[in-house]
Amino acid sequence: MWREEVKLPKGSTLQENRKVDVVVVGGGITGITTAYLLQNEGLNVALLEANEILNGTTGHTTAKITAQHDVIYDELIGHIGVEQAKLYYEANDNALHFMKDLIEKENIDCQFSTQDAYLYGATLEFDHRIHKEFRAYEKLNIPCDFKTSLPFQFDIRAAAIMKNQAQFHPLQYLTHLAKQFLEKGGVIFENTVANDIEEGTSPTVITRDGHRISCQHVAICTHFPFYDGAGFFYTRMYAKRSYVLAAKTKQKFPGGMYLGADQPTHSLRSATLNGEEVVLIGGEGHKVGQGINTEYHYQSLQRFAEENFNVLSYPYRWSAQDLITIDKIPYIGKLKESKENIFIATGFKKWGMTHGTVAAQLITDLIMQRKNPYEEVYKPSRFHADPSIRYFLRQNLDVADHFIRGKLDLPKKSVEQLEKGEGNIIYVNSKRAGAYKDEGGKIHCVDTTCTHLGCEVNWNAGDSTWDCPCHGSRFSYDGTVLEGPAKTPLKTINLNDEESTQ
């Protein structure tokens, strides 16, 4: 939705070997903010983006700038202690104020507005949890309030309110930063896929097309790290997909940003689209590749919308993917303690606007050799005995379960039975395959074995993609990689000669 209203600065295509101070990989909020900050420090920075900048998760967010990250602070206090939990809050609160101050200083027109953030529960279970979360706010000295009702038709039992948070138009904000970065001498290379890194005192980023960029530091700001460096991040995170409707309604939105803690979750905020107010209604999250027919998630959001608003139309709908770490705290900092000049930022859960800014500030400080008070909180090499072990085992048992189930899953239809716009599992030459019939009647057939670690992908009808239930890789209907950790496309199958091709 956000891209409809923004003219983005265009990057160039990398065509020769280059040497720069810093290579930033990833054209979302983290990458662009990091590149902007480092260029302002006087460094020579190149930003690489596999597609077009601001075309991934950043362009599909509900764009809340908030330190309220679902029901988390009571849990953080229990697992990492009051002081570390306070640092987590302060890092995100500082990010909010950094963005607010920059928007005011640079006079960025991006629909920034201060809003209170409401976390509410409607059931007895979440009434108890919201009360505990509110007490955690008080313990951490977070400006807050408590209510037992909201300005909507549905009833709740409790709401913990974090005061003076914000919302904005993310691409209008980041377009300004990208333009400033380019004006100050930075370079952006779009349609440039970073594929590997040669480590050393001067690391070299190698692109899929074989181009090489030497530098002093690399900042990996891709959604899923394109380079793992034996960090095994795919075993320490899982991918979750959620859905958003933009609804035009008769009644005016009452203000505020709202997140329901009950299942399925629902998120509410307003936005301005072509001069008209719309309500962004999000939620219905599930692990990638493991949900029911994804069209049902949109239908469920629509039912919720029409139960609580007088809806006139739904001009937009989209889905987004988020990575969640085993302790729910992002991995930001040195890729490994032994890798002094390679940095990573990933696992933001659903809070990329603040955590992307936290990451940019932290990585900038580390490259500039400045102390940052939040380094230990976000250190990628950390491992908390509880809950890390429990979640690590749970997620990887889930991977094993889906790996086996995928191999045993029987095809659902034959090619002849497919309707236009439908994708499904079929048999090709006695082997499992995936087929999609486009609106013109053309069949696109792929091998359903994920090129990451061999799990079987499932069809996502809502987005017309093949999604891996094990580690969250996503592929277009023709096999092209859309989301990592997979780097290689699905093999395509020619139904005429039944031969596989890359």
From TrEMBL:
InterPro entries: FAD-dep_OxRdtase, FAD/NAD-bd_sf, Rieske_2Fe-2S, Rieske_2Fe-2S_sf, Rieske_Fe-S_prot_C, YhfW_C
Pfam families in UniProt: DAO (PF01266), Rieske (PF00355)
Gene3D superfamilies per the UniProt record, alphabetical: D-Amino Acid Oxidase, subunit A, domain 2, FAD/NAD(P)-binding domain, Rieske [2Fe-2S] iron-sulphur domain
Record-level Gene Ontology MF annotations: 2 iron, 2 sulfur cluster binding; metal ion binding; monooxygenase activity; oxidoreductase activity, acting on paired donors, with incorporation or reduction of molecular oxygen
Rieske domain ranges (all copies): 410-502
Keyword vocabulary terms for this entry: 2Fe-2S, Disulfide bond, Iron, Iron-sulfur, Metal-binding
Cellular component terms (Gene Ontology): cytoplasm; membrane
Protein name: (2Fe-2S)-binding protein
Lineage of producing organism: Bacteria, Bacillati, Bacillota, Bacilli, Bacillales
